[in-house]
Amino acid sequence: MGQYGNNYQPALQPKDPNTAFLIELVGGFFGFLGLGYFYVGRTNDGILRLLLWLVYGVTAYIIITLLLAVLIGIICIPIQLVIQVGVPFWSANTLKNDMLSGKIQQ
Predict the structure, then answer these.
(1) What local confidence, expressed as pLDDT, does residue 19 receive?
(2) CA 5 and chain centroid, separation
(3) Contact between residue 23 and residue 42 where contact means Cβ atoms under 8 Å apart
(4) What's the rounded Cα separation, in Å, for the pair 22 and 48?
(5) DSSP for 41-99?
(6) 2: number of CA atoms within 13 Å, CB side?
(7) What is the reported pLDDT for 36?
(8) φ, ψ of residue 30 in degrees (nearest 5)
(9) So what's the pLDDT on residue 80?
(10) Which residues of the chain have pLDDT under 50?
């Protein structure tokens, strides 16, 4: 069995808190929240954060896309109504003015 017996565990070197902070921060910016926890050996916390961040990202993307579609629709309806009503008035007014000025012979 050797001098350590069955309970031998290799000595882990202490992890730098600043490195863990940077890994977590940069990973989070790129959609990989939890990488800092993997770095320090807290795998379960890293997996939990990674999965929850992924769920949040997908949910936020869907909600923002739907809200943006509704907002664009709401903005476009008045523009469409103005075009739908304004262009015929403009065209009719142009025709009337051309007829009155003699540009179009009857």
Answers:
(1) 93
(2) 53
(3) no
(4) 19
(5) T-HHHHHHHHHHHHHHHHHHHHHHHHHHHHHHHHHHHHHHHHHHHHHHHHHHHHHHHHH
(6) 6
(7) 94
(8) -100, 15
(9) 92
(10) none
Q: Which two tokens stand for residue 97?
A: 């003015």
Location of structure tokens 């997996």: 47
Assign 100 to helix, strand or coil: helix
Q: How many CB atoms lie within 10 A of CB 2?
A: 6
Provide CB contacts within 8 A for 43, sequence distance 6+: 37
Residue 22 per-residue DSSP state = H
Task: Indicate whether this model's pTM tops 0.70.
Answer: no
Give the amino acid at 41: G
- Would you kindly state where each structural domain of the chain is located, as residue ranges? 8-101
Give the model confidence (pLDDT) of 52-61 as tens digits: 999 999 999 9
